[in-house]
Design goal:
NADH Oxidase; two-stranded antiparallel ribbon; alpha+beta; 6 helices; 4-stranded antiparallel β-sheet
Amino acid sequence: MAIKDTVKMIGELMVVAARTAPKAVGQDFIEVILLSDSERIAVGNDMVQIAKERGVWGFERDGKNVMDSDAMLLVGLLPHKGAGLNCGGCGYADCEEFNSKSYSGDFEGPNCAIRLLDLGIALGSAAKLASELNVDNRIMYRAGVSARRLKIGKSKLFHAIPLSATGKNIFFDRPLKPQ
């Protein structure tokens, strides 16, 4: 079996790890997608395009990492109401106020703090599994921006986990911003 096929299989296992991660209040608003190669390359190319549009070099650097990776997982937070705890973690007085608000930028909001914790736990579960299986990975905010822009999935926000198995981790010791 080729290394790239093995990395994709580990990506499938990561889907299970993220999917089965604990969720607050017994409710699941997590979306997990293992991208096809063509989707992954489209995200990488879009990240380079965003770098040109915004003048933000990190999008270009990360986009090249995405294109050089063997596979990529998206973990997102689907549209949701407040968890009903009225905890104020979102910045609103209660879940009723939270539920009446809406805005959109790179991601849609607002987002319930409890649901964001669920997202973090799912991301951590998936990344930990990749690490345990010796597959290099990095959680990327910017790749999630491109995935939403390309209308992949239904989530209000995504983070991505690109995967690579080479002699040197491509996600660290990356080039510095050109001067």
